[in-house]
Design brief:
Helix content is 78%, strand content 0%. The chain is an all-alpha fold.
């Protein structure tokens, strides 16, 4: 599979599957964990959640840029 195809697949999965799922999960989690919480705890929670969404995407980068092993002749 070419790098261009892998990048397209990863982009579609990230934008249309991972990010909506993650956003809904964080909103639901915040709804249960943060009612009546002080503003600084909410800020810390959303700052952490806003940073952690990138971790799974980092796992797709090596896959996208991995080259096919060349055959030895």
């Amino acid at each position: 599979m070419s790098r261009r195809t892998k990048t397209l697949i990863a982009a579609i999965l990230i934008v249309f599957v991972w990010l909506p799922f993650y956003a809904l999960f964080i909103m639901g989690l915040a709804r249960h964990l943060l009612p009546g919480a002080p503003w600084y705890l909410a800020l810390l929670f959303y700052a952490l959640a806003g940073t952690l969404w990138i971790v799974p995407i980092g796992f797709s980068l090596p896959w996208m840029y991995r080259e096919k092993p060349k055959k030895r002749t």
